[in-house]
Every structure is written in structure tokens, then in C-alpha cells.
């Protein structure tokens, strides 16, 4: 949970900016997007397989650049 304490002479804009930064560092946005809709086990497997395939493609593409 992201928390920000507002100082005595601090404006609300700067506190809000610090809060947004803390939320993004905590990784709350990707988690929120992931839980926005229910995902069936089949959809989850499909999503993970696609991510694995992309990761493998990226690995081999970067490997070619090294040589």
C-alpha cells in the first residue's frame, strides 16, 4: 500500500505527485489492470504461452545482434 504524508507547508499538488510516483514504484497499476476482469484458466494459459513465445523470440533476436 502506497502512503504519503503531507508536510505542513507542502501543497496538495506536490503530495499528489509523490503519491503517483509511489504507486507506480509499488507496481499497483499492472496488478490493477490484471485483476480488472476475471480470467479463465484457459485464457491464463494462453496469455502465459504467448508471453513465453515473445520472450524466446526476443532472446534469439538479441543473440543475433551480439555476434
From TrEMBL:
GO terms for molecular function: structural constituent of ribosome. The keyword Ribonucleoprotein applies. One of its GO terms (cellular component) is ribosome. It holds the Pfam family Ribosomal_S21. InterPro entries: Ribosomal_bS21, Ribosomal_bS21_CS, Ribosomal_bS21_sf. PROSITE patterns: RIBOSOMAL_S21 (PS01181). Keywords: Ribonucleoprotein, Ribosomal protein. GO terms for biological process: translation. Gene3D superfamilies: Ribosomal protein S8. HAMAP family: Ribosomal_bS21 (MF_00358). Belongs to the bacterial ribosomal protein bS21 family. NCBIfam families: S21p (TIGR00030). This is Small ribosomal subunit protein bS21. It comes from Symploca sp. SIO1C4. The gene is rpsU.
